[in-house]
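Hi R.,

Here are the chain sequences for the assembly we discussed:
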Amino acid sequence: MELIETTLSSEKIFDGRILHIRRDTVRLPDGSDATREVVDHPGGVCVLALDDENRALLVSQFRYPYKEVVREVPAGKLEYGEDPREAAIRELAEETGATAGEFRSLGELYPSPGYCGEIIRMYLARDLTFGETHLDKDEFLNLERIPFGQLVEQVVSGEIKDAKTIAVVLKGKLLLGL
Amino acid sequence: MELIETTLSSEKIFDGRILHIRRDTVRLPDGSDATREVVDHPGGVCVLALDDENRALLVSQFRYPYKEVVREVPAGKLEYGEDPREAAIRELAEETGATAGEFRSLGELYPSPGYCGEIIRMYLARDLTFGETHLDKDEFLNLERIPFGQLVEQVVSGEIKDAKTIAVVLKGKLLLGL
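And here is the predicted structure of the full complex:
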């Protein structure tokens, strides 16, 4: 079956600090028209960072949409035009103080393909050196080091719910035999 | 560190067909105020469905925000008030025609915790019986059956990018020894 939808028109709905929303009219594969509401996003990065004792760095932060503290790998949004790898190095340093001697890609993640075009690039960081953290002024988080095997157990048991953390931990385990 | 943010006020920004956006003012842990833009979402479900030959059911559909065809496990949004397990059974039947003799939870997923409160409940379905599909009128998709081991390889290699598909496939593999 032909699946492509083509854009007929696009209307800006909301231009916020974080969220940028548009509503497009599209031509469907059967020739009829429909609307598509889209969240535009600059893209993000996340990092599975392992120290010399094979402990992973996790951050806990209050995630307002859930009204709950969520444990995740270090992550952040790209600044517009920023190289993803540079962004991942920056976010890791800002949130955890770590810089990595080894930095490699673990692929891409589409978090919510139904309504948002965000691509999260995933990385593995090892050979870590620790300096000072530099958080944004409205960023509050707690830092934790957890043995990687224990983190895998928490992912498999369902205790870890963040999508990028589940993906990067289990891909790291299977791809690298960690 | 104390991480809780408390809501001071809430403003409705956009009430669309799919997207519902609000902007809240919150009190941060240090006593200062900030705004939080939030996408409200009824929640979703996804299903790793395996046939008697251990082949997984995948759907391919055009994901408009990426302007690309994306391969994913069968999934969908909850209707407001709908039980997640019933929704998963319904979505699997609508998209693939399959009903399952065995249906079990594989946990919860937070796709984009920075700005959206969506929870995706993940399920494993086996002992499948196939009938007719019933797609929504603006839903176009192609159905595929792929050996589960090959699907795991495509997840690990980065060919599969959808977050819920990566999570449910790798959790299924590790939790069930599939």
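The CA atoms of residues 25 and 103 of chain B lie 41 Å apart. The first strand of chain B starts at residue 6 and ends at 15.

Let me know if anything looks off.

Best,
T.
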